[in-house]
Write a structure and sequence with these properties.
This protein is of the alpha+beta class. It has helices at about 1-10, 20-25, 85-90, 110-120, 120-145, 150-160, 170-175, 180-190; strands spanning about 30-35, 40, 50-55, 55-60, 70-75, 80, 95-100, 100-105. The chain has a four-stranded antiparallel β-sheet with strand order 1-8-3-6. It has a four-stranded antiparallel β-sheet with strand order 2-7-4-5. Helix 1 (about 1-10) crosses helix 2 (about 20-25) and helix 7 packs across helix 8.
């Protein structure tokens, strides 16, 4: 299952043989984490990039009032990391934590460099992944500035239709920048227009 999922993911971006996929996956380490495991604390240097095989994670920061502000969710077929911290080896400003039990293929900086030296074609895949990540953050930024809470919730449901059944309502509220009570009212209005 793991190899097939990863191979399918890679071949969405580049054309490579199944033998090359086998070799590429050998640069990664399969790790399993229990629900509520913190993989990165703010202030630490992020030492991994991870491809999510199974489960759901959140990236977040703690605001000046001590509240958790969700930046992103990562589920199956998504990557999770603090790219700036990982690439520049500087302390992260965010946290990465599992919401569900997770299985991930993880790679550190040295192994990633060896991987890219061995398979330069993967530069294209990682460039496209960074572009996709940037688009996600840009849409999120524009949405937070330009859309009402109701519109942000509708965009969230459209982009992540299965997520509301998997994660607690207070995490969705944090992601949307609203209180759990306000989100509850939005959900009720959507059910009973």
């Amino acid at each position: 299952m793991t190899k097939e999922l990863f191979n399918k993911h890679i071949t969405k971006f580049i054309n490579i043989s199944s033998e090359e996929c086998e070799n590429i996956i050998s640069f990664f380490t399969l790790k399993k984490f229990a629900k509520k495991t913190i993989l990165l604390h703010a202030g630490e240097v992020c030492r991994f990039e991870a491809f999510v095989i199974k489960g759901c994670l959140k990236t977040y920061f703690i605001d000046k009032n001590g509240f958790e502000v969700i930046l992103t969710f990562a589920t199956e077929n998504w990557w999770v990391s603090d790219i700036a911290s990982f690439q520049q080896e500087k302390p992260s400003q965010m946290w990465i934590e599992t919401i569900e039990d997770c299985e991930m293929l993880m790679i550190n900086q040295a192994d990633k460099e060896r991987l890219l030296s061995t398979y330069p074609v993967l530069e294209k895949m990682f460039r496209l992944l960074v572009q996709r990540h940037l688009v996600t953050y840009q849409e999120r930024l524009f949405g937070n500035i330009a859309l009402t809470a109701k519109e942000r919730y509708e965009v969230f449901l459209h982009k992540y239709p299965a997520l509301p059944q998997r994660i607690p309502q207070h995490l969705i509220a944090s992601y949307l920048g609203v209180s759990p009570e306000f989100l509850s009212r939005l959900r009720n209005k959507k059910k009973n227009p």
